[in-house]
UniProtKB/TrEMBL annotation:
Lineage, top ranks: Bacteria, Bacillati, Bacillota, Bacilli, Bacillales
Source species: Paenibacillus silvestris
Entry similarity comment: Belongs to the truncated hemoglobin family. Group II subfamily.
Designated name of the protein: Globin
Entry-linked InterPro entries: GlbO/GLB3-like (IPR044203), Globin-like_sf (IPR009050), Globin/Proto (IPR012292), Hemoglobin_trunc (IPR001486)
Gene3D superfamilies: Globins
A Pfam family that the UniProt record links to this protein: Bac_globin
Highest taxon listed in the record's lineage: Bacteria
Keyword entries, A-Z: Heme, Iron, Metal-binding, Transport
Keyword Heme: yes
């Protein structure tokens, strides 16, 4: 493994296995959250697969998402869903809980969540109360 590969967030997190475990811990929390659950289909497996591919790529791992689905264009892909600041906060909270559940060190969790905040709030497309 090259020096660059060892220094990606993906590798620091523990690679594919850890990303998969985070996704598997995350979605049960999302489906129990009254703000988030209505936005997701009953068959959550395809969503989980896409999230695994996206997070792997987002954190510097293999370009799994782009290889299968093209450029992520995540804001555009989320425009069909009413995303409020409150929902972005709920999403981040579920992700924080999932990262803690899988045992990521606090400092790494905080860094990863800071990276995800930019995306989460970029997806906001609906004022509160709508």
């Amino acid at each position: 493994m090259s020096e660059q590969e060892r220094n990606t967030l993906f590798e620091l997190m523990g690679g594919a296995e850890t990303v998969r475990r985070i996704v598997e811990a995350f979605y049960p929390k999302v489906l129990k959250n009254p703000l988030l659950a209505p936005l997701f289909p009953s068959d959550i497996e395809p969503v989980m697969d896409k999230q695994y591919m996206f997070l792997s790529q987002f954190f510097g791992g293999p370009t799994l998402y782009s290889d299968v689905h093209g450029h992520p264009m995540m804001r555009g892909r989320h425009m069909a869903f009413p995303i409020t600041v409150e929902r972005a906060d709920a999403w981040l909270s579920c992700m924080a809980e999932a990262m803690e559940e899988v045992g990521l060190p606090q400092e790494l969790r905080e860094f990863l969540l800071q990276r995800l905040k930019g995306s989460a709030y970029h997806f906001v497309n609906t004022p509160e109360g709508e």
